[in-house]
Each structure stands twice: as C-alpha cells, then as structure tokens.
Amino acid sequence: MKPSVLILAWALPAALAQTPGEEAPLSPGAKARYHLSSTVGPTALLELGAYAGVLQALPTPREWRQGAAGYGERFASTTGATAIRQTLAYGLDVALREDPRYFRSGRRGVWPRLGHALAATVVTRTDAGRGRLACSWIASAYGAAFLSNQWYPRRLNTVGQGFLQGTATLGLDALGNIFTEFRPRARKKTPSNGGE
Length: 196
Description:
Blueprint: H1 3-16, H2 28-40, H3 42-57, H4 67-96, E1 98-99, H5 110-119, E2 123-126, E3 131-133, H6 135-148, H7 159-182
Helix pairs in contact: 1-5, 2-3, 2-4, 3-4, 4-6, 5-7, 6-7
C-alpha cells in the first residue's frame, strides 16, 4: 500500500473528529470573496500562469498550438476550469454550510502535519466548526473537470478523462495543502513600546 494512502487513512478519523475552532464562520459574502480571490487574485493568477506553462511545455493537449497563441489557449482553459470549480464550490459551500478555508494543524511533527494536510483534501469544517467529508470541494473538482472537458479535443472529452482530471485536481489540492501547512508562518506584528 502506498505511504500517502496509509498516512491519509491514519489522519482521517482525527480530521473528521475536529472540534470547533476559534475562527468565526464565513458569511456567504465572505465565501464569495474567498472564491473570487481563488479565481482571479494575484496568487491564483500566478498559479494559473505557471500551470498553463507546464501544459505548454508538455505539450498538452497536443492538438493546441505552441507559441503565444497556444499558451493563451491553455491559460484561458485553466482559468475557465478554475472559475467553474470556484463557482460550483461557492454554491455548495453556502448550501451545505461548509468552510472553504484550509486550517493549519495544531500538531507537532512532520507525519501528523502531513496527515492533516492530506486529510484536509477530502475533509472540511462546517460553519459550526465540525469536521466532515468535503462534499463541496470534491463535487466541484469533478464537476469542473467534466464541464471544462467540453472545450478540450474530442479524445479528451470522455468520462474516463473527466474522472482522471477531477482526481488530478484533488491531487493538486493536496500539494497546495502541504505547501500551506509547512510554509513559514507570518509573524504577528507587535505594537511598539515607545522605543523601548
């Protein structure tokens, strides 16, 4: 069995048994801003541009051109798929009262934190702070994959490719969670004591 599967299986029960955190739940308006920023915010646009560059280098799909025009197609495609996913996720977050944010682990050690990051790919907090299956995040990954495959070449617009793309999206989510979990924390600014 793969180590990532073992870590996930070990971490899921703890993730599902989360107790309410200190963070206030997001209002529907705050959730809309979160998802908008995840689509067209500066970090999102950099990530989309980098991903389009990887697709250009592969080149995938091979039917699309190279050069600036091909890169533009790939960037538009990744941006469109992200917009679809974030829109679906927003609607489901509001309807199911799920929190779209990633919450870092309060645990120490690489393995517990890695398990938390992997589990957070498929487990979320409700607005009440409890852990449960991330229905909005999982459904939006597969929904966006099937919808965005409509503009891909015919050979890629299949049920199998939709499932593959949705799973790849969740894999990228897991990598993003791991990065967020282990990146250095920003230090909180402390007020000045008048030069002391």
